[in-house]
Amino acid sequence: MLSISPLDPGEKNPLFRQLFDRLREMIESGSLRRGDRLPATRELAGQLGLNRTTVSAAYALLESEGLIAGHVGRGSFVTGRAKSPADGPAPASFSRSRPSELLFPLAEFRQTCAEVIARDDAASILQLGSPSGYAPLRRYLLDQARDEGAARDSDDILITSGCQQAFDLLQRMLAPAAVLVEDPVYLGVRNVFERAGARLIGVPMHDDGIDLDQLAAILANTGNARPRLLCLTPNFQNPTGATMPLASRQALLRITQAAGVTVIENDIYGPLCYEGEPLPSIKQLDETGNTILLRSFSKVAFPGLRVGWVIAPRPLIEKLTEAKQWSDLHTDQLSQAVLLRFAESGRLERHRERMLVAGRARLNAALDACEKYLPAGAKFTRPRGGMNLWIELPEPLDAADLLPRAEREGVTYLPGRYFAVSRPRPNSLRISFAGMTPEEIRSGLATLGRIFSDALNSAHAAHSFSEVAALV
Amino acid sequence: MLSISPLDPGEKNPLFRQLFDRLREMIESGSLRRGDRLPATRELAGQLGLNRTTVSAAYALLESEGLIAGHVGRGSFVTGRAKSPADGPAPASFSRSRPSELLFPLAEFRQTCAEVIARDDAASILQLGSPSGYAPLRRYLLDQARDEGAARDSDDILITSGCQQAFDLLQRMLAPAAVLVEDPVYLGVRNVFERAGARLIGVPMHDDGIDLDQLAAILANTGNARPRLLCLTPNFQNPTGATMPLASRQALLRITQAAGVTVIENDIYGPLCYEGEPLPSIKQLDETGNTILLRSFSKVAFPGLRVGWVIAPRPLIEKLTEAKQWSDLHTDQLSQAVLLRFAESGRLERHRERMLVAGRARLNAALDACEKYLPAGAKFTRPRGGMNLWIELPEPLDAADLLPRAEREGVTYLPGRYFAVSRPRPNSLRISFAGMTPEEIRSGLATLGRIFSDALNSAHAAHSFSEVAALV
């Protein structure tokens, strides 16, 4: 039985938060150790005379901090390491847009793998597969998309080795002379098209997605050289975290359809909506059925398993499947079968719900810390989901110049100029918050806030000095 | 205890063969059924008063026929289905160059997976990986290649999503205006370069590999437009099954080095050498270190797991790794970790030894059946390993014309013209024997032999008739 000092219902701090604090302290002090099993929620609720939902809420918070992991049917286990002085400060990497390893549901993954490889048809999974993808997975994903209205009868699906390959295959088959992309944009998109010699036309991003007036102006001015393709991420865009409101999505479709522009909708962050209701995708809204929809398991579940997919009109899927065949024959079958089982068994959805709790805690930690630590004049986006937010520092700060200093203090990020198409914004940076615990986010942003404030003060001092010098 | 009638040491048929026949009959008659466990070799040897190696040899033959499967530590189980009249003739597919599913070591695969996912570092395998590949696998494969002299200190390695992707990345980074390839050649190679707009120059294949005189002549005659790249498969080439003798490999290197041509050596069939000693690879023989070596797990083990690799000079590997990143970020990590464990544990090598026994039985069945059933005037290659052999039918037979008839009788193959670069040989076809049991090979080739002989007789009759008609 855990020895927990009594909670106080009269305290301002709610009971679940008090319980969370007690347990966190026990983990950090080492009285609960990595691998220790926590009591079942019912048991601990009985012991402490609490409502069971109070205990569940405390466990959910602990899980979102990466301190424990829940395993269905087996209970919750301590995963966080007690801090020891010898550890030194943990490096805080804001530079990768990926989920935290601490949140991977390992027991469920193991169970899923065991189920897949025990099956009678395991040999057929290990045999050469189809370029289109593992048939049961294709059927599952296409049915799901049809139920959501994200696939029509005239659509088909291709399983790809992650969404990066979907972009690559699209570039190869569509071979656009010019492509409209968000500015700033995810590097993987920029690279794929740029390397192939396509001209990239950046449409500026605002807090609510690409600037539609600018888009319309570009399309009106390019005449015969008008681009025929637009790539965008309407939900929780990487790098800015911006989401397009419904009205913008509808307006976008009117503009692109009038101009004969096909939309590639990258929706890999869509399932990670932490605040408010998810919006319909462009693909769902598009009456013409022409939108090309990209999705992936890798932002919700296991990014090391390379499985993404494209839903698009059948003739295009046929062309992409041909290109897939000479690119790499087919997508890994073991991972396709494991992810299908993970989804079909309901584990993916349960895991996604835990990721929403964890993601919300991380996002809030990041927003609170930006508010608290960034120097006056700094602006930052307020994403409602996904993994990234975008900071614009006051002039004359340059995020790339300040990076080496941040790295010396154990904090990394990607400067905004890495994502620029034609509008380098040297004072901007991307903060990828999903891979870290809320505590790491707070301490990392505290460090960055101090560095940025110091640099700003020095810049002002230098500016005053140079004004003085100019007077001499 | 199995009820087996006594064997006769005086019979001409050796004891292991007699035991094999008895057991096969029991499986085919249904007295041993799918899933039944065979006695341990020691036990059955004791029961029948035989040497244990006799029983092992009989089991190996049964395994090579796809009738049983051995599981280390658990014994051997019946996997072949008893034939029932309702089954009808099994379709015989000679059209895919891949191993038989019946030979996959499922129990060992399951054990390997279980070991990988149980590890403490499982979460890092499921996380986003490196474009270069899973570091422990890279180290293992590179060390192995260094031990064999197939990698130098100046070489490095890139893990690819199968060897097809290696070809694709090479095409993208080397962007050759023209490429020398074998004629006939594997479709995947032809497609990759042709789609990219490269000019393919076919060098005719003979029983001992590409025609070196022709190669020298092409290089002498192309002048400034001389191709700088040659792709070839010195061991058990697909589609012909041909192997280059050592002297040809050395002569090839002299010719290509004098002409400044880089060799891409596709060695995916190399580990499947059934007769004679394996020959040194071109990469091993190449003193300049410039040869680009491609290898893969997928012909020996589990082709559904897409893991291949390239060993080449470091600057090229760096370029390929960059292209890999925008092609699909990185190769699936689960499959990389599973295949590494499969190799490191010694299971891969044990499985390869079983594949050599099985492959030899299949190759011999194919050669014997070609000898026995093909019409007079037909020629066929005599591979010493791999998965394919090549048949040239007597004129005026056309293998593509005869395919629909073969398919109606349940047998498929790929006509030679599918593999042609600039020399269509309509009378040729590829027989991929590795995916079938020896019995299927025999009955499939018997059917083909009958169809080809009939067609030849009809052609002769028509010819005689037209001669008669011409006299009238």
Summarize, please.
2 copies of one chain form a homodimer. With 472 residues, chain A is of the alpha/beta class. Helix content of chain A is 46%, strand content 14%.
What does this structure look like?
The first copy, chain A, is globular. Chain A is built from 16 helices and 16 strands. In chain A, strand 9, helix 11 (282-285) and strand 10 form a beta-alpha-beta unit. In chain A, helix 4 crosses helix 13 and helix 7 (162-174) crosses helix 12 (314-328). A five-stranded mixed beta sheet of chain A has the order 4-11-10-9-8, sandwiched between helices. Chain A has helices spanning 15-29, 41-48, 52-64, 106-118, 122-126, 135-147, 162-174, 187-195, 212-221, 246-259, 282-285, 314-328, 333-344, 347-373, 399-408, 438-471, and strands spanning 68-71, 75-78, 92-93, 155-160, 178-183, 199-206, 209-210, 229-232, 262-266, 292-296, 308-313, 379-380, 388-392, 411-412, 414-415, 428-432. Helix content of chain A is 46%, strand content 14%. The first copy, chain A, has three domains: 15-88, Winged helix-like DNA-binding domain superfamily/Winged helix DNA-binding domain (Arc Repressor Mutant, subunit A, Orthogonal Bundle), CATH 1.10.10; 110-346, Aspartate Aminotransferase, domain 2 (3-Layer(aba) Sandwich); 349-471, Aspartate Aminotransferase, domain 1 (Alpha-Beta Complex), CATH 3.90.1150.10. With 472 residues, the first copy, chain A, is an alpha/beta fold. Chains A and B meet through helix 4, helix 5, helix 7, helix 8 and helix 12 of A and helix 4, helix 5, helix 7, helix 8 and helix 12 of B.
